[in-house]
Structures are given as structure tokens and as C-alpha cells.
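Practice problem. Given the sequence and the SMILES for 3-phosphoglyceric acid, write out the predicted structure.
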Amino acid sequence: MKKTSFPKQDIKVLLLEGVSRTALDTFRSAGYTNIEFHEKSLPEAELAKAVASAHIVGIRSRSNLTAEMFQNSRRLMAVGAFCIGTNQIALDAAQARGIPVFNAPYSNTRSVAELVVAEAIMLMRRIPEKDKQCHVGGWSKSAVGSFEVRGKTLGIVGYGHIGTQVGVLAESLGMRVIYYDIETQLALGNAQPVGSLHELLGKSDIVTLHVPETAGTQWMIGAPELAAMKPGGLLINASRGTVVVIEALAEAIKSGHVGGAAVDVFPVEPKGNAEAFVSPLQNLPNVILTPHIGGSTLEAQENIGFEVAAKLVRYSDNGSTLSAVNFPEVSLPEHPRSRRLLHIHRNMPGMLTQINNLFSDQAVNIDAQFLQTAGQVGYVVIDVSASEEQAETLKDRLAAIPGTLKTRLLY
Ligand SMILES: NC(=O)c1ccc[n+]([C@@H]2O[C@H](COP(=O)([O-])OP(=O)(O)OC[C@H]3O[C@@H](n4cnc5c(N)ncnc54)[C@H](O)[C@@H]3O)[C@@H](O)[C@H]2O)c1
Ligand SMILES: O=C(O)[C@H](O)COP(=O)(O)O
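Answer key:
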């Protein structure tokens, strides 16, 4: 196993929210043994303390990593979001501290899409009500209010990875698909873009939301948008709880204007399975409520475990940052005959000159150099033919350059 400037057994990996065992296996088989694993998220103060003592942190959607936590985490090297969404992480603050954040952008896409399509059918048939009645001895065999999804219009808000998959599956059931996105997207199958959110709401029998949590999507579906939906239209939200004003949705269902809803994400979600869940949508007709399990299939979780842990290991072992969400991306080759120096710095003019002068002053030959900048940070990787002692000296000198955020040496 390759030596790193910091022994692997001393690199502390903190894994929260019951990430898949595949993540632990990936770290262990790469030689990382100092792993703290928790099944749940931690309360804020405990989380801050745990993050401050870790080098690598892995979370899912429930742990909020705040700017303050990044400011107080001198050791922290990298963060893994073992999910798609990264809105729970102060990405700019992580970047400013030279900390890359990795996620799994597609590993649970299909799981969410399958659930959404299943829910569309269930809501169209008013299965939630019929199911409840049968469980308490009722028997209301009737076709009233039940429809096929074939021939109906599905409106997708946010036509990205999940939205497009939902569209493809829905078309295979004979649905007509329209979508609204703020970016121009390649339409799959016969899907048609529409010009505005309100146009989509007015034309769709079922509206499904697949946008990220951003300032632009916060509360984007409130009373006016619900009123713009077709009478009896159905709403599915498996994106983020802050996208829908949940009280307005409850009112629209009570009034009968919205014919039902399937909701997987909520503005406030319990921190763990022991905490009670309260929502204004409870016990309303034709409503499916699920505990944020859109991406929770064993296939998805296992894939996410491998994928994100592998990205973290690759960054720690080799310096590659490919697919980091907040950081300059470099995909680095192996460096069998060189020592590798990593230098993360504030993105400011003159930095590369200072770095290169340092190498010529030391008369050390550079075998390869990689530079990438993004936002507030620059990332330079330098492979050198140098002795261990020379490389250590270079690392110390690199660290002394004003504007340096982090330096590492990989043998
Ligand atoms: N329920 C779950 O368990 C679960 C699982 C996975 C993902 N998610 C959520 O789903 C979201 C979407 O995932 P994805 O992989 O499809 O993301 P994505 O980035 O591939 O797609 C999001 C799309 O939304 C569009 N968009 C952004 N702002 C918009 C706006 N204001 N109006 C219309 N479109 C807008 C983007 O341009 C993009 O095309 C994630 O960010 C995450 O929050 C939830
Ligand atoms: O962003 C995501 O991938 C989903 O919200 C799933 O999050 P989870 O891993 O906490 O279930």
C-alpha cells in the first residue's frame, strides 16, 4: 500500500445516517481503519464536535453541515453526501476552506422515478382511500373517480436526471409528457417543453416536482400555483420539502380543487425513526405520505455507498476531484515514480508563479503539473522527482505561501 504524508490509520472517517455497509467496505479495503459509524444523524452540537475531529465526513440528507462547522474544522479534508441533494451542506463555506464535497448524482435516480410512476397510478385510482377502507372492513367497489393513466398528461417540473427518467417511464405507459425547466434540456421520447410553470400546471392531469432546493425553488408551489392546476389535478413531490407550501396544499386538497397528492419530502422531517412525524396532510383523502424514501432502495443505497466512498478514497489517495460539486475538478493519473504535492489556495493572481518559483529555487524537476480553479479556490497538483526529505521541505514551503488553504503530500 502506498504511503501518504499522513498515515491512513490516522485519517478519521466519520460516517452518519446509516450509509450502506458498502461504504465501510470500500474504505476498509483501501486501508482506512479509523472509521466512526452512526446509524442516525447527530444533534447539531454533537455533529459540530464530531465533524471538528474528523478528516473525512459522510452524511445523507438529514445532517446539516453549516458554514460555522467548516470554519471550526481544521482537519476536515473532504465531505461525501451519500445521496443526490447537497442543499444540506454550506458548499461555499466548504470551498472557502479548501474542502471538496462529493455526491452520487445518479445512483438513486431510477428508484425515485419508479416510485413516482407507481404513485401516479395509485392516485389516479384513488387507491389510498380504498386501501384504508378495506383495512377497516369497508368494501366500496366502484369505478367513480378512478381513471387510467394512459392518455393523461404528466407535467414534470425540473427535467433533469430524475425528471427525464420519470418521463420515459410515463411514456411507456401511454402518458403524454410535458415539462418545465429553467434550462434548455434535451427532450426524451415525445416529451414537450412548455414556456412557463403556470402553463404546465394548467395543462397537466398530474404534476410531479423534480427540482433541487435552491432560492429559486423555495415555496415555488403555493396557493396561486395550486389554484392554477386543473380541477382534480394530482401533485407528487419527491424533490425537497421546501418546494411546496404544505399548508396551502392541505387546503387545496380539502377544498377538492387538488384531487390528491403523494408527498415524500417535508419542510420539517423527523431527525430519526424514533421521532414523531406531524403534517397537515395527515388523514386527508387520496394522499400518500412516505418518509423520504424516494431513493431508499437497497440497490440505490449499495451503489451510493460504493460510489461516494470510492470518490473520497480516490481524493485522499490520489488527489483526484472529478465530480466534486463545489471544487476545481481534476482527474489525475497514478504517479508511481513521483511524489505528488497538492496545493489548495485562494484563487488570486500570481499564485502559480510563486509555486513554480519555489520549485526552481529548490532545483526540483516537475514531472507533471495540473491546475484548475473554480470560484474562490485554485487547486494545483505537482508531481516531482524528489527525495522524501525534499518533498517534505517543499510541502512546508508551499504551506507558507500566503493564500494557501491546504497542502498535502502523497508518496
Ligand atoms: N425523495 C428522495 O429521496 C430524493 C432522491 C433523490 C433526489 N431528490 C431530490 O430531487 C432533486 C432533483 O434530482 P435530479 O437528480 O433530477 O437533479 P438534476 O440536477 O439532474 O435536475 C434538476 C433539474 O431542475 C431544474 N431546475 C432548477 N431550478 C428550477 C426551477 N426553478 N424551475 C424549473 N426547473 C428548475 C434544473 O435545471 C435541472 O434540470 C434533487 O436535488 C434532490 O433534492 C430526492
Ligand atoms: O438527495 C437525495 O438523494 C435524497 O433526498 C435521498 O436522501 P437520503 O439519502 O437521506 O434518503
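Check your answer against the key. The domain at 1-103+298-327 is CATH 3.40.50.720 (Rossmann fold).
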